[in-house]
Amino acid sequence: MRRGRFEQAEGGTLFLDEIGDMPPDLQTRLLRVLSDGQFYRVGGHQPIKANVRIIAATHQDLEVRVKSGLFREDLFHRLNVIRLRLPALRERRDDIPLLARHFMQKSARELGVETKKLSEAALKFLSSLDLPGNVRQLENLCHWLTVMAPGMNIDVKDLPPELREESRVASAENWVAALERQAAPPTKRRPRPLPGALAPPLEPAPLTPPRCHPPVRRAAAPLASAPPCAGSHAQVASVTPSLECATHVLRS
User: What is the pTM of this model?
Assistant: First the structure.
């Protein structure tokens, strides 16, 4: 008689990986077990009590899948009791050297060989990578290095060529993006208005009619060096009227 997963995990913990990709029919069966606390063997008629702790993991956003109809909402609420978020390796780069050394030792034990050592430069290079595959990608990389690296001390040049090329392309793209930001013209900015108390709206001052002064007549002073000739009359100099005109000014 074959025992199912829930029966095997009786009194313990059942880990369900990638729960977000579970087909709809399996979601219904899992929901029934979580709701009733019991299950049936394949072909059986007697219910079996389940005493199992469930831990589910996924890389997808279950709330988005619920809204799109790809995941049952009632099952989501059954599972969403205690939620833990495990950050990606790129968000905790300090863990990469520790994990890399651990996986190098693990691969050496599995293959029955001596553990190879990663140099500081190689560890620093690995810590700078994004590693979209997270821990699994790092574990596979360490297994590859255990098999393919030529020496016992692993440097950056011993890493997979595609990994070094990916890092070089990413660095070049970052450099180009930074250069484009530096070379981009400054954005057009609207002039900042001065405070209203310091800069009231400009209005032309009204023109006033010109004020004309009456002519002023002054007697000319006699010439001391040459007295006037006989028969000549003293000339009177007249000053032309002065005209004051208002100008068009702006109130400041």
Answer: 0.55
48-96 pLDDT tens trace = 888 999 999 998 999 999 999 999 999 999 999 999 998 999 999 999 9
Residue 95 contacts by C-beta under 8 Å, 6 or more apart in sequence? 89
Distance, in Å, from the CA atom of 113 to the CA atom of 105, rounded to the nearest integer, reads 9
Boundary-marking domain end, from 182, 198, 233? 182
- Dihedral sign for Cα 179, 185, 186, 189, please: negative
> Domain with 105 in it: what CATH number?
1.10.8.60
Domain membership of residue 138 (yes or no) is yes
103: amino acid identity, one letter: F
* Residue that has been written with the tokens 């000053």 in this structure: 239
**How many degrees, rounded to 5, is the angle at CA 45 between CA 43 and CA 48?**
100
At residue 178 the predicted structure's pLDDT band, cuts being 50, 70 and 90, is low
Q: Name, in order, each residue with C-beta under 8 angstroms of 16's C-beta and a sequence gap of 6 or more.
A: 22, 30, 54, 55, 56, 57
Query: For residues 248 and 201, what is the distance between their CA atoms, to the nearest angstrom?
Result: 16
